[in-house]
Specification:
By secondary structure, the chain is α/β, with parallel strands linked by helices. It folds into two domains: 187 residues, Spore Coat Polysaccharide Biosynthesis Protein SpsA, Chain A (Alpha-Beta Complex); 128 residues, no CATH class. The protein has twelve helices and eleven strands. Strand 2, helix 2 and strand 3 form a beta-alpha-beta unit. The radius of gyration is 21 Å and the shape is globular. The structure holds manganese (II) ion. The site of manganese (II) ion has 5 residues, from loops.
């Protein structure tokens, strides 16, 4: 087991928070594998120190500073910086097999059985199920594969601008060649899928093992009141994060991670996102007070917004409301 590891990537201090929660969630579920965090140069030293407390190995990946082909590749395709940083996971050749997990994922139960799978195993992407989602995948570190991935990036670019596009082009037979490389969806459950197929979520959601907070707004963009255990919305709420998983993320972050950050940051300020009602009463009040109610929209308008993927997930189209409606149909 010592030659197998979970690997994640944090490119800034926000994603570092995600990586901290992810690592802690893997530990809470007693993984027997090693934990590796790749960090970019923009992650502050106290954040790296917190990561070192949770992860067995924290590795700085500075593509700009590297003497390898990634540096050359980056000069030709500067837009693919984060992608090349992610591909560095293939250079961890002191491990025979690894599971990569995005920093915006959260583990809900032990998933060590993923190491029974081979490269490249991943779950379908909810938006285009013939593509795999690159938020969770099993791979074999290899400098040769790493080199080929960089070459492929330069040659063909990325059809979605990120690593998922490159990886799907590179492992192009994933959809058809070997069903054992299709991870069940419960290893990479994204909220967007919950809303697009709610009855399936009601049927299978309880088996979820990994939640992936896909989309622009991430758990760390919210604020959290630990006293009332409530998550407060983000003003530009185009989010589709499931409130139940969002709360789980914040519960872990506020109880296990924030204390570590307080120790490492010391007198240096850092953004925890936690609302401390007792200490800064007036400031806290501003954070917890609800935003003004949105103007009422017609059901036609609402329908077209929904169809454009702009559901009011925290309000009228909240999971609870949809569930209530669905229950009334199913009765
Ligand atoms: Mn992600």
């Amino acid at each position: 087991m010592a030659d197998q590891a979970y690997v994640t990537l944090a490119t800034n201090d926000n994603y570092a928070k995600g990586a901290m929660v992810l690592g802690q969630s893997l530990k809470n579920h007693n993984t027997s594998r090693k934990l590796v965090a790749l960090v970019g140069p923009n992650v502050a030293e106290p954040s790296r120190e917190v990561l070192r407390k949770i992860y067995d190995e924290v590795r700085l990946v500075d593509v700009l500073d590297s003497q390898d082909t990634a540096h050359l590749a980056l000069m030709k395709r500067p837009d693919l910086g984060v992608t090349f940083t992610k591909f560095h996971c293939w250079t961890l050749t002191h491990y025979s097999k690894c599971v990569f997990m995005d920093a915006d994922t959260l583990v809900l139960s032990n998933i060590d059985e993923l190491f029974d799978r081979e490269e490249l195993s991943a779950a379908p992407d909810p938006g285009w199920p013939d593509c795999f989602n690159s938020g969770v995948f099993v791979f074999h570190p290899s400098n040769e594969t790493y080199g080929k991935l960089l070459t492929a990036s330069l040659e063909y670019g990325s059809f979605d601008g990120g690593d998922q596009g490159v990886l799907n082009s590179f492992f192009s037979d994933w959809a058809t060649a070997d069903i054992s490389k299709h991870l069940p969806f419960i290893y990479n459950l994204s909220s967007i899928a919950i809303y697009s197929y709610l009855p399936a979520f009601k049927q299978y959601g309880g088996d979820a093992k990994v939640v992936h907070f896909l989309g622009k707004v991430k758990p760390w963009n919210y604020t959290y009141d630990a006293k009332t255990k409530s998550v407060k919305g983000h003003s530009q709420d185009d989010t589709n994060l499931h409130p139940h998983y969002l709360l789980q993320w914040w519960d872990l972050f506020s109880s296990k991670i924030v204390p570590l950050m307080k120790t490492e940051y010391g007198s240096q300020p850092f953004h925890s996102g936690c609302v401390e009602t007792e200490i800064h009463e007036s400031v806290a009040q501003m954070h917890v007070s609800n935003p003004p109610p949105p103007p009422q929209i017609s059901s036609q308008e609402r329908k077209s917004k929904w169809e454009q993927g702009q559901a009011d997930y925290m309000g009228m189209d909240s999971f609870e409301n949809i569930e209530r409606k669905l229950d009334s149909f199913l009765k």
